[in-house]
């Protein structure tokens, strides 16, 4: 079971309220007026940008005619959503979108990721992370060490009693790309090998150069996050050189799922991937 995340609780709350509103036949603007919100403010609520209070959620539950059991669940989600996760305390360094990603990661049951030339952040060593972060021209040098610390803190979910299940599909080029130089790359590959040997909740699958459709996804990078709660859909996140953000369209999240399966199908087995990593690391 994953730990409770305020970010995930808020997401579940707004998804369930939106579903209930639609089941009752209200459009967003009409419902907003019924519960004393402007249409714009209610839109912010349903997008998770504005948090309801114990007072403002009352009329919402009344008009939606929520029964006692669901009311208790929704109020519990509201209370959880008001807690502060460690990622929100770094708001001066990371914006709302990254805070959302880290909050989703913290409450995840499993994560599927695809990267063509970079080891995903949850599996990076400190020197490797520092090399990547310091190379970003948009990041000031004074921020580098703080951002490295944040990246490493995210990795706590890989260990302990509430481990997240992580499957990372990466291209073979990642094992050759001299990120930070040969010593840093070697240390990163040795770290990957150790993780695969020690932790059964981590799987790294390498798409070899010999894969006939190995470059089908090009240089894209994305993550698919799933949760233990049955009511929650998959959360999608995509990244590029200048953009990183959530994918809120369910159809696009579905398409990312298909793309992930295609990439995984081109990859080596866990055992063969480990052997390839060891080979490049020289261990």
Automatic annotation (TrEMBL):
Gene3D superfamilies: lambda repressor-like DNA-binding domains (1.10.260.40). SMART domains: HTH_XRE. InterPro entries: Cro/C1-type_HTH (IPR001387), DUF5753 (IPR043917), Lambda_DNA-bd_dom_sf (IPR010982). GO terms for molecular function: DNA binding. Pfam families: DUF5753, HTH_31. Residues 17-71 form the HTH cro/C1-type domain. PROSITE patterns: HTH_CROC1. This is Helix-turn-helix transcriptional regulator.
């Amino acid at each position: 079971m994953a730990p409770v995340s305020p970010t995930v609780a808020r997401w579940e709350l707004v998804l369930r309220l939106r579903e209930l509103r639609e089941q009752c036949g209200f459009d967003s603007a009409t419902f907003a007026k019924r519960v004393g919100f402007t249409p714009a403010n209610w839109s912010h609520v349903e997008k998770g940008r504005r948090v309801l209070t114990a007072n403002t959620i009352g009329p919402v539950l009344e008009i939606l005619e929520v029964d006692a059991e669901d009311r208790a669940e929704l109020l519990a989600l509201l209370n959880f959503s008001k807690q502060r996760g460690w990622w929100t305390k770094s708001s001066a360094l990371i914006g709302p979108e990254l805070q959302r990603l880290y909050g989703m990661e913290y409450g995840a049951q499993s994560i599927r990721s695809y990267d063509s030339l970079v080891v995903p952040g949850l599996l990076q060593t400190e020197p490797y992370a520092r090399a990547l972060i310091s190379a970003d021209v948009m990041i000031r040098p004074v921020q580098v060490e703080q951002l490295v610390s944040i990246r490493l803190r995210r990795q706590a979910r890989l260990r302990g009693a509430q481990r997240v299940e992580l499957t990372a599909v990466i291209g073979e080029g990642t094992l050759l790309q001299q990120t930070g130089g040969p010593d840093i790359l070697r240390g990163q590959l040795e770290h990957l090998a150790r993780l695969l040997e020690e932790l059964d909740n981590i799987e790294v699958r390498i798409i070899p150069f010999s894969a006939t459709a190995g470059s089908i996804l090009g240089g894209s990078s994305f993550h698919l996050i799933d949760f233990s709660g049955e009511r929650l859909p998959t959360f999608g996140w995509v990244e590029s050189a200048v953009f990183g953000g959530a994918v809120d369209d369910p159809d696009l999240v579905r398409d990312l799922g298909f793309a992930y399966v295609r990439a995984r199908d081109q990859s080596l087995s866990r055992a063969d991937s480990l052997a390839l990593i060891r080979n490049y690391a020289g261990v």
